[in-house]
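In response to a reviewer's request, we include the raw inputs and outputs for one of the modeled complexes. The two entities were modeled together in a single run.
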Amino acid sequence: MGMFCALAMGLSFLESLIPPIAPVPAVKPGFSNIVTMFCVSSLGAPYGLAVTLFKAFFALITRGSTAFFMSLAGGLLSLLVMVIIFKRFKNTFGYIGIGILCALFHNIGQLAVSVVILGEAMLTLTPLLLLTGLVAGIVTGTVFKYTLPVLSKALKTNTITHKE
Amino acid sequence: MKNIFGRNLIKRSDVFVIFLTLLLIFSTFLIFRHTPSQNPVAVVTVDGKVEKEIDLTLQEDCIITLKTDPVVTLEIREHTISFVDSRCPDHTCEKMGVLNNVGDTAACIPAKVIVTVKGADKNDVDAVVG
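The model returned the following structure tokens for the whole complex.
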């Protein structure tokens, strides 16, 4: 479990090194979402929740309380959608569809919090956040497809060594 | 770990999701983007309350310091407005560049400051269509 938290944290950090593409703080590719997606799909929702909470806590210590609430709201909403997809609509969507839906709801959650905290003016960013969610979702969905086998393999060998 | 490997990269429903998202982007774009205005007004919001409204066509170049926590400095230059300094760790707002078109928005999240450019036409109602 610690490994996944570390992975999510590492990816978040790497991401912060990439110069912002669009002029909004919330716009990032969201690679740490891949870790959450993996946890939910392979290990179960509680693991996903743990990673989400950890990510929010990481945002709190590195970027302050506003970032914490935004990360938490986005993360939880995205997690909820993820769980619904993997439980109810297991075969409905491909990787790209899952990636997009998770990214979109992540952004919607963040937007909702920013509107509450900062005011209605934030709503003008809605089209931009939806667009970036779409692009980010396609990227994370694709990356997820190709990292899933590797992650699962790593997880398997890991559990076996622990049992011995 | 069951049948997740057999999943396709993209499915028919994904295309539907993409299409729906694009539609949503377009419609929200239409809702929140007002028609271009002759006199853009920069609205500075602090913590959800409107702090200042600056007519960008009339306002001369100046520096505005907001006593927020962290302190934020805005600059008005040649009818544009931009964040020039923020005493916060991420400095994202400074990278947002200059705002001068209606609909442009920049925010400093730690200081809870938003700058939006709005149109000031009196015939604003004409812009509300469908």
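As requested, we also summarize the result in words. Residues 2-11+32-163 of chain A form a domain with the Arp2/3 complex 21 kDa subunit ARPC3 fold (CATH 1.10.1760.20). Chain A touches chain B through 47 residues (CB under 8 Å).
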